[in-house]
Structure formats: C-alpha cells, structure tokens
Amino acid sequence: MKVAWQRLIRFVATDGRILHGEPILPSPEFDIGKVTEKDALKAKVIEGADLYDTTGATKVTSEVVTVKRLLGPLTPADVPIIRCVGLNYAKHIKEAGRTPPPFPFIFFKPTTTMLDHGDDVRIPKIAQDDQADYEGELCMIMGKDAKDVSMSDALSYVAAYTAGNDVSSRKLQRDPAYAGKVPQWGFSKGFDTFAPMGPALVSSQLIGDPKDLHLKTIVDGEVRQDESVSDLLFDCAYLVHYLSQGTTLQKGSVVMTGTPGGVGAGLNPPKYLTPGTKVEVVISKIGTLVNGVTFD
C-alpha cells in the first residue's frame, strides 16, 4: 500500500510544535531511534489529518524543521485497537513450555498501553515482584479497513511497520497463584505504558517483504533476542488474512506479530525488568525503539 511518506516520525520541533514529519536521513543506514537533540535531525513537515491517506490530501510539504525530541509515531487516538499474537516463534514456544498452536493465538492490549519512544515503562505495584518482562516485536499498521482478505492480497492492506515491546507480567500471566489454572494474557499485559512503539513508521513499500527483516532485543547492553522475522510460525500475510475473517481490521489498527525466544523469564536464572533497565528493540530498516524502566 502506497502512502504519502516513506518514513513517518512524530516529534517535538525546536520551535515547540509537536509535528509529524518525513525525516531527512544523513545516510541510508542512519538509525532514527538513536537520534538526539545534538544531531539536529531535519524533517519535512507532513500535513493532513489522515496518516494513511491515498488521495493526495495528506502530503509531505517543503517546510523543513529541526527535531528536538523524538516521540512515538502514534498516539492512542490514532489506533482503534491493538491485536497481539502469542506463541508465534518456535524458540519462544519452546522456552514457554508450550506446543505450537494450530492457529494464531490472539489477545488484545488497550490503547492506554501505548508509550512513546524514549519514555519509561512504568511497572505498577502489582507487578514489581520479579515478573515484569520484555518482548521485542514487529508491528504492522493497517492502512485501510480489511475484512475477509485473501493471503495474496493481505499485505496490500498494510501501510507501515514499526518496532514494539509487548511488556508482560509473568506471574499474573502464568502462575496459578496469580492467574488461576488457565494462563491469562489480557490483564497481565494490559497495564499503562506496556506497549511502547517506535521509533518511526516505515512504509510497506520501503520495507518490502517483512520476512527479510531481523529483530534484536538488547537489555542493558546484552543481546537477549536475535531472530529473523522469517522464523514466524504464522507470517504477516497469514496474520492479516486470518484476523480479517469475519472481522474488520480497522484502518490504523496495530498488529503485534509475536516475540522470539530470549525473554527474561526464559533465561537461567530469569532476568526481569527493574528500575533503571534500558530496553532496545532493533529491527532492520526500521531502527531502534528505546525505553527505560521505572517502578510506580
């Protein structure tokens, strides 16, 4: 799907305005997620109410401004719903002690979980007892409504991709003393700030085949997750096809596609998020989503 921009960032400009823009990269390999105020990154202002407009109403203007602070590319007002896919990488399925599901395992996050690039994930008191965990993920953003779409057409409904972190509370998710006999995913993954996304939206045309992307999650300088997106059990095209059966995937909806092996709970010994932790989700062609961690 072709949109007006190739990369979209949301940022605070040096004049104080919060804007959408097309970043002017100093080199093709420049990582937008690493930008600081000192870099004085320039961007062309994007005007238009509809980020995914294809009529020409939304456009990249000739106005060039300087980025003071990078935010997340999306706000809760931009996103009707966040659909998430669990158990979608073979290594993660193994470390979770589960068997591969015959169909995608789906759960939802409220849009109140969304968090800007650069901000801290805030762990609530109920999840501060050695259980808060990271899950680096590739996210798809729907550019137009999709219902009952075929596999062959599925990716034509995707406007862009970004990086995300499906922050999770493992005891509330899996421990029978906290979750009951059946593991549950909604409450344990649905706290405020538990879905950082960014650093930019990268158009599907620029990404090409998402199977060619590579994902890493780095925690305090240590690479914890390192996997090709081609290892997805259910790939991006299949997810859009499957999720759209009998259901309208609304324009602007986000689909978090699942996480590889290497989550904190799967390490020996486990390593959970603590105050001061720095989490980086790095996806080729997209950049690095960076967030710290604090306890409420």
Total E-strand runs: 18
Distance between the termini: 41 Å
Q: Give the helix tally.
A: 6
Q: What is the chain-wise order of helices and strands?
A: EEEEEHEEEEEEEHHHEHEEHEEE
How is the main sheet built?
11 strands, mixed
Q: Summarize model confidence as the mean pLDDT.
A: 96
Strand content: 35-45%
| Rg over alpha carbons | 18 Å
- Poorly predicted regions are none
Structural class: mainly beta
The best one-word shape is globular
Percent helix among the residues? 10-25%
Notable characteristics:
296 residues, globular, mainly beta, 36% strand, 11-stranded mixed β-sheet, 5-stranded mixed β-sheet
Describe it for me?
Helices cover 10% and strands 36% of the residues. The chain is mainly beta and 296 residues long. A hairpin with a 3-residue loop joins strand 17 and strand 18 (287-295). The longest helix is centred in the last third of the chain and has 8 residues, at 236-243. The radius of gyration is 18 Å and the shape is globular. The termini are far apart.
Q: In summary, what is this structure?
A:
With 296 residues, the chain is mainly beta. It is built from 6 helices and 18 strands.
